[in-house]
Design a protein that fits this description.
The structure holds two protein chains of two kinds. By secondary structure, chain A is an alpha+beta fold. Chain A has two domains: about 5-235, Rossmann fold (3-Layer(aba) Sandwich); about 240-300 and about 305-390, Nucleic acid-binding proteins (OB fold (Dihydrolipoamide Acetyltransferase, E2P)), CATH 2.40.50. Chain A has helices spanning about 45-50, 75, 95-105, 110-120, 135-150, 165-185, 195-200, 220-225, 230-235, 265-270, 335-345; strands spanning about 5-10, 20-25, 30-35, 60-65, 65, 80, 155-160, 185-190, 205-210, 210-215, 240-250, 255-260, 260-265, 285-290, 295, 310-320, 325-330, 360-365, 375-380, 385-390. Chain A has a six-stranded mixed β-sheet with strand order 6-7-8-3-9-10, sandwiched between helices. The longest helix of chain A is centred in the middle third of the chain and has 18 residues, at about 165-185. In chain B, about 70% of the residues lie in helices and about 0% in strands. By secondary structure, chain B is mainly alpha-helical. Chain B is flat, with a radius of gyration of 28 Å. The chains are: A alpha+beta, B mainly alpha. The interface of A and B includes residues 72, 90 and 131 of A.
Amino acid sequence: MASVTLEKINKLYENGYHAVHDLDLEIADGEFLVLVGPSGCGKSTALRMVAGLEDISTGVLKIGDRVVNTLSPRERDIAMVFQSYALYPHMTVADNIAYGLKLRKMDKAEVARRVQKAADMLELGPLLERKPKQLSGGQRQRVAMGRAIVREPQVFLMDEPLSNLDAKLRVQMRAEIAQVQHDLNVTTLYVTHDQIEAMTMGDRVAVIKAGILQQVGPPQFLYDNPANIFVAGFIGSPPMNMGMGAIVRVGEGYGLKLGDTALTLHPAVLQEHPRLAEWVNREVAFGIRSEDMEDANVVRGGAPENSTVSAKVSLTEALGSEIVVHFELPIAKVVTEDTKLLEKESGADDTGVHTEGTRFVASFAPRSRVRLGDTISVVLDTERLHFFDPESGLTLKG
Amino acid sequence: MSEESIIATQFEDIERQGKPADQHPVSLGSARGNWFKRVGWRHLLGVVALAFAIFPVLFVVSAAFNPLGTLSSSTLIPKSFSLDNFTKLFQTTSFWTWFYNSMVISLLSAGLSMFISACAAFSFSRYRFKGRRSGMLTILLVQMFPQTLAIVAIYLIFVEITDLYPAIGFNTSWGLILLFLGGALGVNTWLMKGFFDTIPKDLDESAKVDGATHAQIYFGIILPLVTPILAITGLLSFIATISEFILSSVFLTQDQSKTAAVGLYGLIADSQQRNNNFGIFAAGALIVAIPTVALFQFLQRYIVGGITAGAVKG
């Protein structure tokens, strides 16, 4: 059991490609930290550097109190679960799990005891004499976990272990992995590109883009207080709705102009975003999550003054627990490098139906009666608005 | 039987199947008749091909067991059985020495060549270094040079070597093994590299994280997974060297150092002795064939595919 500290870790390849920039992370003993980001952002490279499978170009890596930059993986006392499981095909499940222990010339009785314990924990008992090719995907994944657990290492490293499983199995295994880590209380560094895994499994989540750490914190904190446009658009499903709007003065207070409508901003907004005062009559990027918008007709006690915007419904999806409503607002899209990357990641087709304005997706209460083609009044909870500098992408909060 | 008539027959069957059984009984399988036209001719073709292949083997076998032991009295089907040729072979020639030499040279050069090729293929597959692509191409191109043309050059080189280091010069087994090893890297390496490429690098890394040293990974994880290609390479090398004649005949001239191929040739080299010695020649050839067949049988179980199935997902 030990903490893992990455101090200004860099990875620079020979051909000049700078994969990881000055990564600073501190993982406490027993903590489950998730590294999340789009494909190719350097998270797997960072993980492999911690494992010792890649050289660290500059920076200091510590496991516990030891500086481990130059130590081989064997000496670092870590265990890794690979995306492709990497089970030894010519050995039985029991031999696969025991391999690391046998290499360390452990006593046979002790090896058998540990293998049995891991097998019991992961329900692999009846499968111990089978070969990997006789197992299903979920079973192979559990064998890979068993191999890591049995070593009783200081750190678990997991490289997208659930990517190759089908959706239903993934949900089940997510819970199992989280449970195992909790029971064993081993420091764990988990890499994934799926933000849902990140949110549900991690004690803390670190978002990485293009080799640079964007933000690190507990999942709910990242959800409520994204540090920039990238984190805002990456975390949360469905993604945060974003658009351009101008800050205007409305009487004594401030407002957000969306097309022709001006929403009055609640005074608390200015307390949390004091810098908004500098943005009067300038365009700012704002974001709002789908659950923070509501159909004006269903809001109890009516909508607050100047907090609604009118729009035409272009699509509804009734899910039973909520109604997902798509509509267009007459405002400009937020176009930055980050939004382009987010669009690419989500697979959004640029050649789709071109509409005037920006498409917003809201989640209404099921008792709302909106239908396709209706012109509705949407209430925006202005306290839950996020504001970003459109040039730098950074939040204007605090 | 023409294409049209075969198709016509099949269509008739299909037509018939649509109608109730009492109007047109459906004929299936052998009830359809015309067995030879449909199926039998393939068996005949197979038998002809088999006869063509087995004819020389049968001739040698019958010559080996022919009590008279001459070429003129040898027939395709053995008329009588006797082991005289074998006893004559063992008593009048140094056959067992030749056989021993053959086995030593072939086994050692096949084994070493397998090992060298595997190491080279592993490097080409796993590592990235300057000269990797050109190295692989060079290996292939160099092997294309005809060995026969090289004999003169090889002979001259070995004249020098025999002067300086007689232990590995002419008429020694080790000299010949070294010579065969010179051709070890080549197509074998290419074949093996392709096979090594199919083993995911994740396995290497997983073993490394588990704490295995490079040697433990190579011998414990990687090699057991490439046994099919190792077996094939070993087998092909063995077959090539045990029947190799040209270089061996130039290299080994003393009786005690000869391989079986060279020694047996010597029995029928002289045109006057050819007729008389044919029986013992056939007996020797038969004995030399045994290790190859045995090796084939032994290696069968290694030449199976699908060993790496289940190692990684997808």
